[in-house]
Each structure stands twice: as structure tokens, then as C-alpha cells.
Amino acid sequence: MEFGFTEEQEKLRKEIHEFFISELPSDFDPTYQSPNKETQEFYRQLIEKAVAKGYYVPGWPKEYGGSGYTDIEQGILGEVMGYFGVAWPDGNGLHMLAPALILIGTEEQKKRFLP
């Protein structure tokens, strides 16, 4: 039984790692992030870049703005984010409401509430 990652999964891990290396400032301190305009702007810009790379809602299907990542791929993203101490600010919509809409929502609801 093989418990390692595939070549494609290792490539994804490296890509995500390089993204955070290039986007996080060298003095990034995940232990304290005061809610001020500077940190809000930093996270807003980081999230915009993460959305463009498909890292913000990776488990959502592509047709709704996600990446369609498998559970393993989402785990890889979470592991790398944890390594760097990065957490996405999110409300209930991203991880509670949206998955329910994707699974059981009507097409009208999906068009109205999902990007």
C-alpha cells in the first residue's frame, strides 16, 4: 500500500509553497494580526491573488468559482497554509452555506448566491 503523494500532488504542494513564499512578507507573524486597515488591506490583496490561483475555495466545483480540488489536494493546501500560519478570514457563507447550496440548492439559488 502506497501512502505517498503522487507526482501531481507533489507539484501542487510545491506550487502552493512557492506562492506563499512570494506573497508573504519576510516579517510575517501569524501569531498576532491586529485588525487594522493595514492588515485588512494585506489580506484583501492576498485573497485576491489566492482566488486567481484557485486557493480560496478549493473544494467548490469550478463552475461556481472553486478549483474542484479533491480532499487530498485540499489537505495539501491546508497543510502548506498551516506551515506558514495563514488562515483565510471567512464567514459562514464560504464553508457552511455555499456547500449546502452546491449540493441541494436550486439553479436559481446557485446563480443568485454563488460567484
3D architecture notes:
The mean pLDDT is 89. The protein is flat. It is mostly helical and 115 residues long. It has 5 helices and no strands. It has a single domain (7-89), classed as Butyryl-Coa Dehydrogenase, subunit A, domain 1 (Orthogonal Bundle). Helix 1 (7-23) runs parallel beside helix 3.
Observed structural traits:
115 residues, mainly alpha, Butyryl-Coa Dehydrogenase, subunit A, domain 1, 5 helices, 59% helix
Low-confidence segments, given as residue ranges, are none
Q: Which second-level CATH architecture applies?
A: Orthogonal Bundle
**Average of the residue pLDDT scores:** 89
What is the terminal-to-terminal distance? 40 Å
* Helix proportion range: 55-70%
Order of helices and strands: HHHHH
Estimate what percentage of residues fall within beta strands.
under 5%
Which class in CATH terms? Mainly Alpha
Q: Per the principal axes of the C-alpha atoms, what is the gross shape?
A: flat
Provide a count of the helices. 5
Strand count, sense and barrel status of the largest sheet are: none
CATH topology: Butyryl-Coa Dehydrogenase, subunit A, domain 1
What is the H level of CATH, i.e. the homologous superfamily?
Acyl-CoA dehydrogenase/oxidase, N-terminal domain
Rg, nearest Å: 16 Å
**Overall number of strands:** 0
Structural class: mainly alpha
Domains, number: 1
